[in-house]
Amino acid sequence: MILEELLGKPVWQMTGEELLFLARHDYQSNNTNTVTTATKEQKRFVYGIAGIARLFGCSLPTANRIKKSGKIDRAITQIGRKIIVDADLALELAGRKTGGRR
Known about the structure:
Layout: H1 3-8, H2 16-39, E1 45-47, H3 48-56, H4 60-69, E2 76-79, E3 82-86, H5 87-95
Antiparallel strand pairs: 1-3, 2-3
Organism: Tannerella sp. oral taxon BU063 isolate Cell 6/7/9
Pfam families: DUF3853
InterPro entries: DUF3853 (IPR024363)
């Protein structure tokens, strides 16, 4: 079977044999590419107070309190009204205990 023909053919027109051939070939070619893409580390960002609320699973007023508390200040970049938060760093900073009751 010619791979270029199968890649151009719609899935609904393929036979079972053609589909299995394409799946096997795709698995073998993607096996080498996954190593290179897995090594890249991508940062995850959330935007605004609504993004902070979704990240922590809380309400908007609570997200505003979290932002104003200063606990996650290192994760926040604010330019004017735009708020950009590094999600992984914010979760890490919020998990640390500082001070508290004795």
